[in-house]
Write a structure and sequence with these properties.
Two copies of one chain form a homodimer. Chain A is of the alpha/beta class and 373 residues long. Chain A has two domains: 2-135, translation initiation factor eif-2b, domain 1 (Four Helix Bundle (Hemerythrin (Met), subunit A)), CATH 1.20.120; 145-362, Translation initiation factor eif-2b, domain 2 (Rossmann fold). Chain A has eleven helices and 18 strands. In chain A, the strands form five sheets. In chain A, strands 8-7-6-9-12-17-18 form a seven-stranded mixed beta sheet, with helices on both faces. Chain A has a four-stranded mixed beta sheet with strand order 13-10-11-16, covered by helices on one side. In chain A, helix 1 (41-49) runs antiparallel to helix 2, helix 2 runs parallel beside helix 4 and helix 2 (56-70) runs antiparallel to helix 5 (118-157). Chain A is globular. The mean pLDDT of chain A is 96. At the A-B interface, helix 7, strand 8, helix 8, helix 9 and strand 14 of A face helix 7, strand 8, helix 8, helix 9 and strand 13 of B.
Chain lengths: 373, 373
């Protein structure tokens, strides 16, 4: 997508140095556009853990890139399998909720371990990383194509008045490689000349709505309005949103959706007020081994994310303390929305209900692998 | 209530200067404790409008004090009735949602206009202002007494484990004169040795939860934990809150409740998860002329409240910008929670259901005055 006049993705292989993966360091947006070069699995781990990169699809691809970088610093060759397995465990521990992370690392590990030499491992890893990046971009494009008719239909009903879409957090191109998941149908509608307007919810404590989604939409010229997370109930109650679209960090077979904390409140208010709520779900965010959202591990993050707000003042990025010193904090980063509250999923294979049978209809090859208990 | 070792109320008549009303300037809490002296209706208007004081009961009392101060700067005596009526209209326009404001101003105006001379007007105004303050304190004390058994009962069920109470915004003593509405039963339970723990929700955009409620509870030694507004759905879903208590800015006859933006989302999540939700309602926050919450005017406040976060950095109060420059904002300050989502009201006359008949049972003298259409 465009940043100013230049086209960017969130992650790319450095064109001149095969031992470098470049990413947009999202901690400084929207105040500063910074690119960070990653050289080692440890740097990748920190970039994921500390949210230089975030968003389930991008976390997956970045972790896969971490496995690729691991091949440039192995110990002696006969220990390389143990080294890679250790790096895989390490990378998978960076964050617990997004299923993309472990899936992507395991995918890389399988490809790498089939190759007989380090040289061939690097080639196999790079080839699969590039294929994975292309697949994730393609997933988003297809989610856009399948989601577009939903917006078109509302637009027809509203006789061309702007379609008001509420989203939460950032499930835009910054959360993926390009296009985004929840935003893909929005960008596609906008580009097709359908008037759309996006309610951007702040998404405390990390403010990905205000920092990232607003920035993305502004760069692309899509009309948007900032609202506090608190205001979203009022907006849904008053008929000011025609639909809700969010992303997901992990979707289970029964249709439950773990997503950024606050998604559940929006889903319950949308359901109560008859507003359609779609989740954009690339298949890489579906946990085929998990039946029920209650089993999804919910990450608890630092108290200081809640105690402070990150922003911009005096010409630089700056944090301010919001509460009395040493106040205790509970900071769950995700919540689980039951599938029964959702209108449906927009996937790269089409639209389905948020339930097991309809999900498996779209992905017939994905016979779920059930872990032994 | 205590601030350090000293007992305070939010507003008081200056002991040495009858032309001064003192208030705690709440804009600087929790970082700095400042007292502001108000001398004129214009200063009172600004203090309400710019939220030096806030909270429906305190807004009412402060506006009443504005009428009292108006008596020290009248034009010549034969124009005093017109002057007072003009000041009343002016003060009532400071904020639209809390019904306490217009009720309190009208109450003062009625008392004042019965007196034949300016001197007697001042005496009548002062006497009624002091009575009004005493009544509001008494309302809160009684709300505490009626609410206490609700907490005691949960405590017995939990065999003395802490009762977890979720609140929103600040309906504490800082919103009133003393004790608070939603907090009164909590303080009373704590003082009676019942273990309580309060989930304090941030309450963006003005952060009254983190700034005021957390500060109050900390001063009084009540255990609390900060959570983002987004986290409250997860807390209610996971059974981590035993009950919810909030305040109200205006309650209508059918039991609908206008309160700080975000209350509706908590109520809908509490209802879905079977968590009792009580609203602490002093009768001064009941609009006896309004049948239905849909008619309540919802204040929209400045875009900059949402674009910026106020906090503390480098040893001083400071704001940081949170989003791209010039982002459009929608900032409704209140939402309306339908009475059917609520378990009940805690009033100074006892507990009732959030519905017309049960409300009028508690207040039999209050035959509703229906405005001519």
């Amino acid at each position: 997508m465009l940043v100013g006049d230049k086209s960017y993705q969130t992650l790319w292989l450095h064109p001149e140095d095969e031992q470098v993966i470049s990413v947009i360091d999202q901690r400084f947006l929207p105040f500063e556009f910074r690119v960070e070069d990653l050289h080692t699995p440890a740097e990748v781990f920190m970039a994921i853990r500390e949210m230089h990169v975030r968003g389930a699809p991008l976390i997956g691809v970045t972790a896969a890139a971490g496995m690729y970088l691991a091949l440039f610093q192995p110990p002696d060759e006969k220990e390389i399998t143990a080294w890679l397995e250790e790096q895989a465990l390490y990378l998978k521990s960076a964050r617990p909720t997004a299923v993309n992370l472990s899936m992507a690392v395991d995918r890389q590990l399988r490809k790498i371990l089939l190759a007989p030499t380090v040289e061939e491992m690097r080639a196999a890893s790079k080839e699969d990383l590039q294929a994975f990046i292309a697949e994730e971009i393609d997933n988003c494009r297809k989610i856009g194509e399948y989601g577009l008719p939903l917006i078109e239909e509302i637009s027809r009903h509203k006789k061309g008045n702007p379609v008001n879409i509420l989203t939460h957090c950032n499930a835009g191109w910054l959360a993926c490689i390009d296009f985004g998941t929840a935003t893909a149908p929005i960008y596609m509608a906008h580009d097709a000349g359908i008037p759309v307007h996006v309610w951007v919810s702040e998404t405390r404590p990390r403010n990905q709505g205000f920092r990232l989604t607003a920035w993305e939409l502004k760069q692309h010229g899509v009309p948007y309005t900032l609202v506090t997370d608190n205001a979203c109930g009022h907006i849904l109650q008053k008929g000011m949103a025609d639909m809700v679209i969010t992303g997901t960090d992990r979707t289970t077979l029964n249709g439950d959706v773990a997503n950024k904390i606050g998604t559940y409140l929006k889903a319950i208010a949308a359901k109560a007020n008859g507003v359609p709520f779609y989740v954009a779900v690339p298949s890489t965010s579906i946990d085929w081994t998990m039946d029920d959202g209650a089993a999804i591990p919910i990450e608890e993050r630092s108290e200081n994310e809640v105690r402070f707000a990150d922003g911009f003042a005096n010409g630089k990025a700056q944090a301010v303390r919001l509460a009395p010193l040493h106040s205790p904090v509970f900071n769950p980063a995700f919540d689980v929305t039951p599938g029964r509250l959702l209108t449906g999923f927009i996937t790269e294979h089409g639209i389905c209900k948020a339930e097991r049978d309809d999900l498996l209809r779209l992905f017939p090859g994905k016979v779920p692998y059930i872990k032994e208990k």
